[in-house]
Amino acid sequence: MKDHYIICGYGVKGRSAARALCESGVHTEDVVIVERDRAQAEEASLRGHTVIVGDATRSSVLQEAEVAAAKAVVFGLARDDTAVLATLTARDLAPEALLVAAVLEDENAHLLRQSGADEVITSSETAGRFLGLTTRHPRVGEVLSDFLHSDYGLSLREHLVTDDEVGCSLADIADQRTVAIKRGDEVLRYDDPRIGRLQRGDRLVGLPRSRGPGDPVDARADPTTDDATSADAPADDAPSREP
Predict the structure, then answer these.
(1) Among 236, 235, 217, 213, which Cα is nearest to 226's?
(2) How many Å apart are CA 17 and CA 36, to the nearest integer?
(3) Which of 18, 39, 58, 95 has its CA 20 to 30 A from that of 142?
(4) Is 160 helix (H, G, I), strand (E, B) or coil?
(5) How far is CA 34 from its chain centroid?
(6) What's CA 130's distance to the chain center, in Å?
(7) What crossing angle do the helices spanning 138-148 and 123-136 adopt, rounded to 10°?
(8) 0.85 exceeded by the pTM?
(9) CA gap 65, 237 in Å, rounded
(10) Are 203 and 237 in contact (CB under 8 A)?
(11) Which of 126, 73, 63 is nearest to 100 (CA)?
């Protein structure tokens, strides 16, 4: 395996991450699931994923998943201490891989970053902010929810500034409506005057102006879409049984 995606934990977060990757164009078999619970591992296998049964904190298990050759590793584990140890292990084995981790408590987010995670998502805080925002502004919440459904919702894209785009302004980027730029360790909104001209290494995040190959199709509006290909199993609100 090479340039594959590894998801550690196949609970609610892991299943959602796997679905999002597949909806974005990643082949099902290129999403490798590491799960110690055999029932959940069997479910992942039935969905067509490559499955490694074992503990994501163990080097031997991650080596079996060929973590050193992976494009990215996602940690959707049920406990923050387990996520920290799994992240440490993965970073040691795969110095160049993108590591994305979910954390339950915001106070533990810095531990994940210190362990080598490139991006940390605080699941409980994010859900709480989403609830509060939707309560005050229901339509805004509806739009944000739409973003989360990549099989039919609005689609955000990210791309590295090309050589031809270096020195251009945001208005010169014809194929997307840019909403933010990641420059170094900082995220700059589209209206931030510090953006100026695009620089080498900038990453643009925005809405594509038109659909292209691999963009999600609106299953609600397209009668030719087979609903069975995008339907997920009923949500299981119970946490993953990862340690």
Answers:
(1) 217
(2) 17
(3) 18
(4) strand
(5) 16
(6) 18
(7) 140
(8) no
(9) 27
(10) no
(11) 73
Sign of CA dihedral 44, 50, 55, 56: negative
Q: What is the residue whose two structure tokens read 């995606």?
A: 5
3-state SS record for 1-53: CCCCEEEECCCHHHHHHHHHHHHCCCCHHHEEEEECCHHHHHHHHHCCCEEEE
Structure tokens at 85: 């140890």
74/186 Cα distance (integer angstroms): 22
Pick the CATH number of 5-127 from 3.40.50.720, 3.40.50.1010, 3.40.50.300, 3.20.80.10: 3.40.50.720
Domain with CATH 3.30.70.1450 in the chain: 157-208
75's tokens: 């940690």
Buried b (16+ CB within 10 A) or exposed e, 54-79: bbbbeeebbeebbbeebebbbbbbbb
Q: For 211-241, how does the pLDDT look when each residue is reduced to its tens digit (9 = 90+)?
A: 544 444 343 334 333 333 333 333 333 444 4
Residues 83 and 75: beta-carbon distance below 8 Å: yes
* Rama region for 116: left / alpha / beta (φ>0; ψ in -120 to 50; rest): left
Q: What is the DSSP letter of 157?
A: E
Q: How do residues 71-94 score in pLDDT, each as one tens digit?
A: 999 999 999 999 999 999 999 999
Topology given in CATH for the domain delimited by 157-208: Alpha-Beta Plaits (3.30.70)
